Amino acid sequence: MRTADETIKATPPKTRAVEGILWYIGSRGMEGGDRLPSERDLSSELGVSRTALRAAISQLESRFVLESRQGSGTYVCARKPTFVLEETCSFSEAVRRAGRVPSSRLVHARVHATDERSARKMGAAAPGSVLEIRRVRLVDGAPASIETAYVNNDRYPELARVDFAHESLYACLERAYGVRLAHGTDRISITRVRADEARLLEVACGTPAFFQETVSYDEEGGLIEYCASVVLPSKVQIASTGGAPRFERW
């Protein structure tokens, strides 16, 4: 059996440096915006080489735990909102839970005939016309995701009059039609941000992102919404507990 010292020595230097940085952040209660010590001081504190430390910082930057600011140093990133697929949690709730401020910007809300994409996603329940609602979700005023929702306009015609820059889709459905979300399905993949999405998200075209598709149903099994979201992993985390899904979208 290895001793503790032998185990430490067998661990790759970069891995020890990563674990050391995370320990340092946690043990000192550091939060988003706090600055790490200089490379020289931190490598000495953790007992790792500066080469291993730089590699660890680079890895933690790719995981959005740290960010380096030219001429200023390395800082802890602000805590990201986490959306757990099985939880009943709105966008606003998840953002506030992370100690951040949520908001939304309406791109458009318009009625049009069901196109090939929305018909395919909505399946047999596809309506003749849909209300398409596109919004940019913001965290602390910075774009985090784009949500494009398709709602059955034949079934919910009054929704076309709602100002979705300030109103919740599901609150309106419950208030006007007595409809509540009961269950749904999520599918998540990886994509790269298109030029039009890049402008809305204020990132470079081709930036990696999550692509999330959600189909939601009411208590009678009626289709409520198909929603496609482009989500920046630098701003938001998506997680799963592996349990039965229970979710709600703001």
Automatic annotation (TrEMBL):
Q: Which domain of life is it from?
A: Bacteria
Keywords, alphabetical: DNA-binding, Transcription, Transcription regulation
The residues covered by the HTH gntR-type domain are: 11-79
Q: Which GO terms describe its molecular function?
A: DNA binding; DNA-binding transcription factor activity
Quick one: a GO biological-process term for this protein?
A: negative regulation of DNA-templated transcription
Q: Does the keyword DNA-binding apply?
A: yes
The answer to keyword DNA-binding applying to this record is: yes
Instruction: Please report the name of this protein according to its UniProt entry.
Output: GntR family transcriptional regulator
Give the organism the record lists.
Answer: Candidatus Olsenella pullistercoris
Upper classification of the organism: Bacteria, Bacillati, Actinomycetota, Coriobacteriia, Coriobacteriales
